[in-house]
């Protein structure tokens, strides 16, 4: 079971360079299985990464095997797993377009149907961390500010966030889906940025009924997009 979990997380991490979401080691993917989390090791180049290098930890962040150190973002991942029911995979990158919105401290508005097919509303940007939150338990507090931002939001309907001055986190039902949502977010961020430039200001949000139609036809209880499983 552990070897299979490591393999899945390794393969999900290797999708980040494939889709151009990372530079150097600027990213990581994890997956939770029960009370075990598998995550990329800290600072290991993707070209050198092997399935056996993936680090296993418990929900308190204790490593379960001798070997490499887990990603420095581990505590952020764990805080999301503890608070977002149904989230079993998480991706963090510094992808160019999504990170640009994060550095600007701006939500990505739901302006079109590509966005609505995956994300039920704007992509929120968190508040900035306080000096104390940065100084002490920074990665844990990054997770806490994401959870704070999602008060009143369904993280499965909005499977992504921008951390102000930092970058995006996305999630899903497993590691692969979290990467899929990271690819979607990067494209949505790019299109929203271009739309903003073309309009000379903020892009207009799409009508709520159009947002509902596109999201719910794919994810609602009466969804009809795609083939029956």
| Major β-sheet profile | 6 strands, antiparallel
Number of strands: 6
Placed side by side, the strands forming the largest sheet appear as 3-2-1-4-6-5
- Low-pLDDT segments: none
Distance between the termini: 26 Å
> Tally the helices: what do you get?
8
Shape assignment: globular
Kindly describe this structure.
Helices cover 41% and strands 13% of the residues. It is of the alpha+beta class and 229 residues long. The protein has a 6-stranded antiparallel β-sheet with strand order 3-2-1-4-6-5, sandwiched between helices. The longest helix is centred in the last third of the chain and has 25 residues, at 175-199.
Brief write-up:
About 40% of the residues lie in helices and about 15% in strands. By secondary structure, it is an alpha+beta fold.
Helices, strands, pairings?
Layout lengths: L1 H17 L8 E7 L2 E4 L15 E4 L15 H10 L5 E5 L2 H9 L8 H4 L14 H5 L2 H12 L10 E4 L3 E6 L2 H25 L8 H12 L10
Antiparallel strand pairs: 1-2, 1-4, 2-3, 4-6, 5-6
Pfam families: Aldolase_II (PF00596)
EC number: 5.1.3.4
Catalytic activity: L-ribulose 5-phosphate = D-xylulose 5-phosphate
